[in-house]
Amino acid sequence: MRLLVHNIGCLATPLAGGAFLQRTGAWLAAEDGKITALGAGLPPEAQGAAVVDAGGQLVTPGLVDAHTHLIFGGWRQHELTLKRQGVPYLEILARGGGILSTVEMTRKAGLEELVAKGAGALKQMLALGVTTCEAKSGYGLDRATELKQLAAIARLKAVQPVELAATFLGAHALPPEYRENRAGYVDFLTQEMIPLVAREGLAEFCDVFCETGVFTAAEAEKILRTGLRHGLGAKIHTDEIDAIGGTELAGALPAVSAEHLIAATDRGIDALAKGGTVAVLLPATSFYLGKPYARARDMIAAGVPVAVATDYNPGSCPSLNLQLAMQLACWQYRLTPAETLTAVTRNAAAALGRGDRIGTLEPGMQADLVIWKAPDLDYLFYRFGENLAGTVIKRGRVVQEN
Ligand code: NIG
Ligand code: FE
């Protein structure tokens, strides 16, 4: 299966080595799902390849959404008034709402229902130019429901084109059954669930919500180290609201990524730089919770690889629009268009352990790309609030035409 994309008005991509390439009048060739050559000027003979005319538009790598809670039952629009009245996110959770009300709805939902809902979300994401997506469990907090969520993710891998990376987030909250027995729940995760999830190949990563009133840095360390021993890469939700040591832990492990980081301190940023840990920033969550925006510029200045993702979930970010997150990153974090594109391609792929295969347009990389309804990169950040993705290509095949 060969592919030739020609008449590319502007090809924009980060490069594995750290540079950023913008080339006008370009073409791209792929074979068996991988990029074989790129050039400018006259394209090579098509020789039986599928030919796609980019119409003089912008072409970038396919977008990677490195942080989503894709699988959940129900919605939480009933929290809107509370949130607008300023009731804090952690207080809603402490009252048994928030994550725990989604846990109740997810426990009740059937597998087929979760698969159908996830498929609907992935269809929308693909139409927005997302070709790879992380999906966390964490709305079961019991054996059967965590496995049901991971089974839904496994099923979705087989039936639609968006590539999925599964993350086990059993440590998303303390379930009601263990309210008086924190240590018991941590034991359940480390002794039963993590070994099981790893043995069954149901997840690539393990994640913990390290936050005031949720899991401490010491509990997170125990859980993530157990995951690492079982071959699950470490991720952590940390410094979303308070800085309680999770970011320092992420750098020290090191974790592949630390996510949220709104309240990150200089020490935390330093630890991420030392550990080579990717900072996965979630500007749409800052927007929706009315929180400050993470210190993206300081992180970049410190040499931390910065990724941007949606955090799609029913509580803190009920939006799956990664283009919107990119626009917020550009305007609120003050990232340049090139830094923002890097944050949703190369750095996001690195946060999913796929940096050697996905996230840049270079020979040998997977042929995942988007032909935009945009003449150049600036335009993506200029016409905010609309879907600007045109044709989406995954592993060298056209999978979406808007
Ligand atoms: O990343 N902060 C923890 N988890 C999610 C929110 C989950 C929810 O509110 O349902 C997040 O923001
Ligand atoms: Fe999250």
* Principal-axes shape call: globular
Query: Helical content, roughly?
Result: 25-40%
User: What's the total number of strands?
Assistant: 16
Distance between the termini: 23 Å
Low-confidence stretches: none
* Attached small molecules: N-(iminomethyl)-L-glutamic acid, fe (iii) ion
What is the arithmetic mean of pLDDT?
A: 97
Structural class: alpha/beta
Radius of gyration: 21 Å
Biggest pleated sheet: 8 strands, mixed
User: Count of helical segments?
Assistant: 15
Q: Which percent range describes the beta-strand content?
A: 15-25%
Explain what this protein looks like in three dimensions:
The chain is α/β, with parallel strands linked by helices and 402 residues long. 36% of the residues lie in helices and 24% in strands. The protein contains 15 helices and 16 strands. The chain has helices at residues 80-84, 89-94, 99-108, 111-127, 143-159, 182-199, 217-229, 246-252, 266-275, 283-289, 296-301, 322-332, 337-343, 346-351, 377-382; strands at residues 2-14, 20-31, 34-40, 50-53, 58-61, 63-65, 130-136, 163-171, 205-210, 233-238, 257-260, 278-281, 306-308, 369-372, 389-394, 397-401. The strands form 2 sheets. Strands 1, 2, 3, 4, 5, 14, 15 and 16 form an 8-stranded mixed β-sheet that branches. Strands 6-7-8-9-10-11-12-13 form an 8-stranded parallel β-sheet. Strand 1 (2-14) and strand 2 form a beta hairpin. Helix 4 packs across helix 5 (143-159), helix 8 packs parallel to helix 9 (266-275) and helix 12 crosses helix 13 (337-343). The longest helix is centred in the middle third of the chain and has 18 residues, at 182-199. The mean pLDDT is 97. Residues 69, 98-99, 102, 209, 237, 240, 285, 311, 313-316 line the site of N-(iminomethyl)-L-glutamic acid.
